[in-house]
User: What shape does this take?
Amino acid sequence: MYAVIDIEATGGKAGEEKIIEIAIFIFDGKKITDQFISLVNPDCPIPKFVQGLTGIKTKDVDHAPRFHEIAKRIVKITEEAIFVAHNASFDYRILRQEFFHLGYDFKRIVLDTIPLAERFLPDLPAYGLATICKELEIVNTKRHRADGDARATVKLLEILLEKDREKYIEGVYLKSPSATGKHSFSRQIENLVKTIGVYYLFNSNGKVIYVGKSDQLRVRIDRHFLSTSDKAIALQKEVRNIRIEETGSLLMAEILEHLELTSLKPKYNTSKDRFALRYGLFTIPGTENFLWDIRRIRNDQPELLVENTNEGYVWLAKLTNALRINTKDIVLPRHINKVQKEQQRLNTLASNQLKIKSNNSAKALQQLTYPEKNMILIDSGKNIGSRTAYIIENYLFIGYASIELATEQTNWNLLIKKSTKIPDSIYINSLVIKALNDQKIKPIKLQKHLL
Assistant: This one.
């Protein structure tokens, strides 16, 4: 039996998605013998993008059952059936995640129709469900709804089974790691679901071939070994060992990952892996001050890196407000309207009325990013009772230290001695600034006599 499943979810960060609709069709290879379809109340607002895509509004799920109310039915209907989905790693991961929160380990053999479609239908232009339906004339009147997409996947599975005259699916595919949900490192990482840190994948020569980070290490590492893409399969063949470095903090994991990627240059990482902040605030020398531009990073060095242009507009709005200067005097014309809109928004917030006296807008930006010239910023530590302290000196992030006593975190001289120094890096400095600005880390008042 096959349990053909489709899930619609809230989207967002991996590990935080919530199911809003689920459809399950039990298929015996010829016909549907049972089914279960339900909206699900995620106990959170549905993002507008998801509402637009699926047509499911937050009000539609207000009176729907919560996941725990339908969990038993899902277990029962899928029992002794093969879990089938189009891009199954997504649906299976989210369903397992929901069960994990209930304290239940949901496991099924998994069949993904994407790699099977690539094998048995090699001439299609693409393998998204919409393209396959168009090419094979599979009717789907409810696209991006669990019911419609699951029914379309049933029809696709029927076609694939008919084409599989050599019984490849039963003889080979269902015995592969992607089907069993297990791989050679499953036991090593089974307790790392909520663990934050950095992981290293080594080849047989002990060389690091991939470095990654996550706040759910098991979920992230599983993706490498349960994926069926060409790159994933090549990686799987080479990996012989895994090492985990817990950080307790996603910011610390981002810092370590960037340092390792920069120094080790693992063969399976791409340049995109190194940079979550891909835009920069750049200064262009002017007659009396600097003009500022916001653009994607190329080879030149920005004054500050940001995640997107909107974040850049906020910083330039803060800068012009703090300098009490006309936006047109320091911002390139193509950015003026966006920056002025941010200025108007910030002017209503008392916390953003900081004033700075400076003839140099680049130095003024430093004072905006870090309120004090020398600072200690506190983050979560890798162990219960420990903390990570980030040291800011002369408006720059210079290193970090692990601390356990409250008295240590205010002792500047001690922290300097204990700290692990970080090479001068605008990128890492910008990561710390973003975390501080997003209130993910907090400043600690220092013992002034020790500065």
Notes: Residues 279-288+295-353 form one domain. The longest helix spans residues 146-163. The chain has a mean pLDDT of 88. The two ends are 70 Å apart (CA to CA).
